[in-house]
Amino acid sequence: MPESQFSASREAADAALARQSVLQSGVSVPQTGQECPPINNMGENYEGEHIRVGRRILTTLCKAKAHKNLAFFDWLSVTVHETSFHRTGSGSLISTDEFIFEASRVCESIFGFGVTDHRQKVMNFYNDSWELGEGFGFICFGGQRETLQIVVSGLGCMNAAQGWEKRFYDFLTKTAIRPVITRCDLAHDDMQGAYLSVDWAEKRWAERGFNSTKGGRLVNIERVGNWHAPTGAGRTLTVGTRKAGKFCRFYEKGKQLGDESSLWCRAEVEFKSCDRLIPFDILLEPSAYFAGAYPCFSEFFYHASAQKVELKKRTAEITIESATAVLKHQFGKYISFFRQFYGDADLLERASSDNRDAVPKRMQPVLAGMGKAKQYFHEIFIPKIINIEKDFVPVIDVRRASNNVKAYFAASRG
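The structure assignment produced for this chain is given below.
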């Protein structure tokens, strides 16, 4: 099959999967979307197909040819029906602990990390939430139409096992029931500031480089930080409104981390399902969807973003240097004096935390992913399958396991 036909077939299949996901939610979707005639003043279509879903009109996302490493994931949120985990487990699941056990196991098989802590907090309108890995994301469950939400943070995307995108795509398209991508953030880094900056973004906004249609009023823009007399703390420019299904931000990433002289700039595009239908193949082609977000992005279509190793290395360098500078500025005089008074060895012993394993919150992202720090929920206890009609003993075992898990987490929190 020619490459062009294969690409068209795959796009058609992905569109069908997206529509099927919406159909499974109980709404009516036309078989073919309406043509979207509006174009921007560059003569290219940056407005997706409009699909009616009940009383709502959702817009599909646009793609454009770009460097395969143009963008990377910085946040991902997905909901699936709880019965999805009946398929991945060894039988029917009943209790909350059973669903979380299985969701933890599935997440480890996809991302390389599972549930490590029970937060016992309401989150995203769900009754309860659990932490994934070392601050790598969350699982939310309870009270939302029998769905379970998987949230992978930017730190989680950075530390996920290689190939997680394809594994997650397979899970959503082949196993999950009623899967919906509710939020997806894509990012691009210019670490040298060679072609990307907040000033560049503001200039392109004035030239209507963020308008997807020809004519019309300029999209909303906001500036954060000291733009008239920059202090080195960093500036941010946002395009669009946060409540909309597409929102963009540019910010001085290096300065945010603490390097006042850094030219590192990051561009992020946030897609949400409130008025967008986010296709599953965004997991396979994030760069294409990032490139298709705005007309002005065509200026760096073929620039590769900094890769994971480079990002983690530079982030660690800036964070450590910044933390050392803060320590010196706030306590340098005390340290100089007490070195003479106590000596280096005695001073370190006296000034160090009593908890030798303690890690400052600011340094935790630097150490994240360097080995497994905690045991995963599904590794502590394996719940037995409950068959109410045949055996009541497993119910007692699961309840005991549940109490033991709660005791474990209570002890781990001190």
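Interim note for the steering committee: The radius of gyration is 24 Å. DSSP finds 13 helices and 13 strands in the chain.
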